[in-house]
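Exercise 7. Predict the joint structure of the components listed below.
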Amino acid sequence: MIDASQFTGAWDYATLPANIRLGEDCWIERRDSFSRFVSERDPALVLGDRVRVYTWSSFSLDRTGYVEVGEDSVLVGAQFMSAERISIGRRVLISYNVLIADCDFHPRDPDLRRLDAIANAPGPGRPPRPPISSRAVVIDDDVVIGAGAMILKGVTLGRGAYVAAGAVVTIDVPPGGRVAGNPARLEAA
Amino acid sequence: MQTAGTGRYLEHDWFPRLLPPNVLLGPRSWLYSSYALLHFRSRRPVGLRIGADTGVYIGSQLEVGPSGEVSIGAFGAIAGPIIATNSRITIGDYALISYGVVIAEEPAMIPPGPPSATPNGRGRAARPIDIGDNVWIGARAIVLGGARIGEGAIIGAGAVVDFEVEPFAIVAGNPARVVGHASAGGARR
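Solution:
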């Protein structure tokens, strides 16, 4: 048997890195949501007041990653992968198994990608990684993202936009717009 | 362990929680851990019924609100879905349900229980889900409220289903469509 507190939001948030800023009355269910947090920015993660972070959410922030989440947002299963910036507005609801990435994490060019594989190999003395493109993801207030959706590099979701379950979003969504499918398409209003 | 009474632990459990008395485990069934019930808040007489000879394996989560009930038949292999409802989800015998699947009443739900007093689906009409016998659901498929899946059907990996699927149909894609039919003695298109 283990200590259940690290799974129930009752763990000591003061043990988080100093570049994580929590608003008033934030609740973070699982300590392990930060196991891939290596950002060196300061601040690197800003959660607004009363943000709730459930078990399945994770903050995989690369050394240059930055995530901000507005007040009263609920992250049920938001898996953030950031090398640049992901901005989440207020009162946003993100469902189970949702992935949000602001970067491709590897080069598109096959020769550079081979170099990246070498740079990422385990152990010391590896060459530096080649440049990798990233573009910020911006999700405005009152957006709802359904289960299993993916929001990819450079996407902006306008205020009140709705992303259907399982959608893979690579296009901007206007305020109040609704997208569904893979690849996601804007549905007629 | 055959049946869960008040105050009983799973013998093999690593998570220090009692099984609620309204969770019924059939003979020779397997539930990997009480962690599956992290957000189980059903107040129904039987909030979860797992049939005889059914395995509910690691990664599976039963997110059941106060009015919710989930029933899984016999000889199922439940290999890690998130199952979320505040009404009713019924799964028949011989179910094969893969990793990363979400079976949820709403596309974006807030898990029941603390820190939120908000139960699943509050203020909305109940949208039960009915999955027949001998249904196979592929990895990362999503089954939403209103779905009725007939006996022997196959839901392809990553498909999103919120409609009626006739018995022995094969559906795939996002948006999902019928791509074939399977019948006893061999598949036909």
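Discussion. The first strand of chain A starts at residue 20 and ends at 22.
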